TrEMBL record:
Pfam families cross-referenced by the UniProt entry: HATPase_c_2 (PF13581)
Record-annotated Histidine kinase/HSP90-like ATPase domain positions: 39-153
Source domain of life: Bacteria
Annotated InterPro entries: Anti-sigma-factor_SerPK, HATPase_C_sf, HATPase_dom
GO MF entries: ATP binding; protein serine/threonine kinase activity
Protein name according to UniProt: ATP-binding protein
This protein's UniProt keywords: ATP-binding, Kinase, Nucleotide-binding, Serine/threonine-protein kinase, Transferase
Protein's organism: Chlorobium phaeovibrioides
Record flagged with keyword Protein biosynthesis: no
Length: 158
């Protein structure tokens, strides 16, 4: 579930609008680009609202890349008998950190893959390593038949 805090209602002429309270995003197999864009936008808004002293776009790009890698792993390593897969992407705000979670109905996986000896640079196979390098905290849990990958990035250390 992607949660946004309530923003004040705005009045535009004779229409009153309240911005998003909360939303649930279920990204389908073909929507990894949408998931990545939502991750970047959410992270940038989060950083801006907290007057992040660093590069807001870089903070957003970090989330975009990490969520994109996690989403791609969910799709690429799914059970081949599953034609359509639903990946749920959520965000949780703390005062000094943003956490993204990616859950799917795939088989369990090793969250700590061995560091490969890189003699060539083949496409693929580096998603979890990229996530580990970009994010401050990474964890994975198994909830029933679902994998839940949690990735946290601090805007300032506690």
């Amino acid at each position: 579930m992607m949660t946004f805090r309530q923003l004040p209602a705005t009045n535009t002429g004779d229409h009153s609008m309240t911005q998003i309270l909360s939303a649930t995003l279920k990204a389908e197999l073909k929507n990894s680009r949408i998931a990545a864009n939502i991750a970047r936008s959410t992270a940038e808004v989060f950083a801006e609202e907290r007057h992040f002293s660093g590069n807001v776009q870089e903070f957003g790009h970090t989330f975009e890349l990490a969520v994109s890698e996690a989403f791609t792993n969910s799709v690429n390593y799914r059970d081949p008998s599953i034609k359509d897969i639903t990946v749920t992407i959520g965000f949780e705000e703390e005062s000094n950190a943003l956490t993204a979670s990616v859950t799917d109905m795939n088989a369990p996986f090793n969250i700590h893959p061995p560091e490969p000896e890189i003699t060539e640079y083949p496409e693929g196979g580096f998603g979890l390593l990229i996530i580990w390098k970009l994010m401050d905290e990474v964890s994975c849990s198994r909830e029933g038949q679902r994998n839940a990958l949690s990735m946290k990035k601090f805007i300032s250390r506690p």
